[in-house]
Amino acid sequence: MKHRSLLRIIPAIIFLLSATLAASDVFLLELLTVPSGHPVHRWWQYLFLTAAWLSAAAVFNQMIRWILFDKILTRAIGGPVPGVLKALSSVLVYLLTITAIVGLIYQQSVTAFLAALGAGGIVLGFGLRDLFADVFTGLAINMDRSFVIGDWVQVNEGGAGMSVGKINEIGWRCTSLTTEEQTNVVIPNGLLGTEHIVNITRPMLSTRYEASVTVEFSVSPDRVKRVLMEALRSLDTVPGFDTEKPPVVLIHDTSELGIEYLLRYWILPWNPISPTSANDRVYGRVLAHLRAAGIGLAYPKTDIYTARTPARQFDSHRKEDLVELLAQTDVFKLLDAHSIASIVDAMERQHIPENQVLFHQGDKGKSLFVLIEGLLEIDVESDGHAECVGRIHPGQCLGEMSLLTGERRSATVRAASESIVYEVGKKSITLVMQQQPALAEALSNILAERQISTAMSLSELDPAQQKREIANFAQQLFTRMRDFLELYLSAPKAQ
Questions:
Q1: Whole-number pLDDT of residue 158
Q2: N or C terminus: which one in the chain shows less Cβ crowding within 10 Å?
């Protein structure tokens, strides 16, 4: 930084020295015993006056860059000024300075000088026409401002393919881009003037992207669109997804595979999420919601059946599918298939319209809910203000503490979209625990570990302390479960 500041004052120092030496030529040359009228006097003037004019031009050029470009224009356009404009201003300053030197110092015809300069320019123009095409295209780009430094653009490079990157610099001959892979791509300005360019950043930062999935004809389009919409809406908490513009799910086409659905969503590209990462998030969430709803993607197949056609899709009305779904949850994964089947027989199916409350914070509860389709939001009320603290996705359970201990609901749960849930009541779980007494102890351990992990950071405790905390709380839960479910079980031994 110090070296750069020193270089900036060198032109001013040269100007002062040159002007002083040019003004003192008679005195200095007399000291050197050079007689008056000697040609040395004339060349002395030529040398130091030329140096004074050029150094003055350098100082003036620095002032233009600092005041006009770095201050005024940078604030006006809200970003750095392209280097080609700075270079053009420097050329004009030095061209005018050289013209003045020719006319004022050397006493030559300015018209002849400019004519010679123009003739030389014509010759150079024929020889360097591609170079000049790049230069003038760069000037047009800076004047038109279709894209500026900092914009993300997509450039079709003809046979070389396509480049997507952030503009770092617009120079005399070329424009520099930095891609997502952090590689530098240099594109001649002449190519930018002839190829198709997409400015992703303008006219607004938010940009719409699309994804598509194909599902079999056997699944109701309304149901598929509802599940896909829930998947897209669950992404509004991911940084970079634009929550002000709602996603859309459309039927795009049909084929021999099934129905193709088009998913449209809005993101703020590279602020902070890239389109590639956003696409990964969308497909990941879509596949998770489809899997939880028991809906598979279409694929090429040829089936020949000599018996009854097996079911390909999850059916929330089919007992076997519900047994498989409950077996994957933390609460019921310890049960055998027969016990889960008895719970499924006693479950009640409920349809929850969008924005309807499933239960309120503080309500008495003695049941658990399993979300089959839709999206539920968990709101916790504090000081009269409700705040969304989480979401329940398809395949997850909620309300297990109320089912097992009778604890009041700790939060308000409402449907963020049209949802389908199954309710598991106290009676069915009581019968299962009476048949499998060890289940109560196992469940109390699972719930204790989850509750303590939520309430405090177990990473702050050593393994022995973690084990004691979980065991003590599990014993308390076991006692509450036994009393609430009216079970005749002996308490587990404290560890």
A1: 64
A2: N
Q: How do residues 42-68 score in pLDDT, each as one tens digit?
A: 677 778 778 888 888 888 888 888 888
Question: Which tens digits make up the pLDDT trace of 348-393?
Answer: 889 999 999 999 888 888 888 888 888 999 898 877 788 888 888 8
For position 191, which CATH number holds?
2.30.30.60
CB under 8 Å to 149, separation ≥6 — which residues? 79, 80, 82, 167, 168, 169, 170
Q: Which residue has the higher pLDDT, 239 or 188?
A: 239
* Cis amide prior to 272 (ω within 30 degrees): yes
Tell me the C-alpha distance between 457 and 452, whole Å. Answer: 8
Domain span at 168:
146-199
- pTM (global) more than 0.90: no
Asked, for residue 103, whether it belongs to a domain, the answer is yes
CA distances from 268 to 183, 265, 280 (A): 22, 11, 15
- Three-state SS for 457-488 is CHHHCCHHHHHHHHHHHHHHHHHHHHHHHCCC
30: Cα separation from own chain's centroid: 75
Sheet strand arrangement including 367-373: 348-352, 419-425, 367-373, 397-398
SS3 state at 165: strand
The tokens of 2 are what? 């110090």
CB atoms within 10 A of CB 247: 20
